Amino acid sequence: MACKEGDTVHLLSRTNHDLALKFLEITDALSELREAIAMVDGEIVALDPKGRSSFQLLQAYVYSLRAKDSPTVSTPLMWSEVTAALKAKGKAASKNKALVFEADDVLKRVKKWGDLFAPVLTLKQKLPA
To answer: Residue 73 in contact with residue 116, Cβ under 8 Å?
Structure first.
């Protein structure tokens, strides 16, 4: 359920979690509605390269929570973090949790370094055909 009131937009899941920051493209589109107050009911669908709906694509969205007892978050990394984790790969798994982030960890990272994923949303590049 999408709710717009003035400049505020909420995307509410079935469990009443606000997903507005997770799906910024939808939030931005709804904020452009001329109506000051609006409610839109629908379902977010991601399409695979063949145009078929794929629930798995939504699950892998950046900053999405993993369904676990203690949910971890899909988190963009800096290259230095990846190389440090590869060097520590031989250590016991219980000690090597450098790349496991919970919601509070991600909020601290964004506050410290900003949104590491943000440049991907505006990056223009040409890929070889």
So the answer is: no
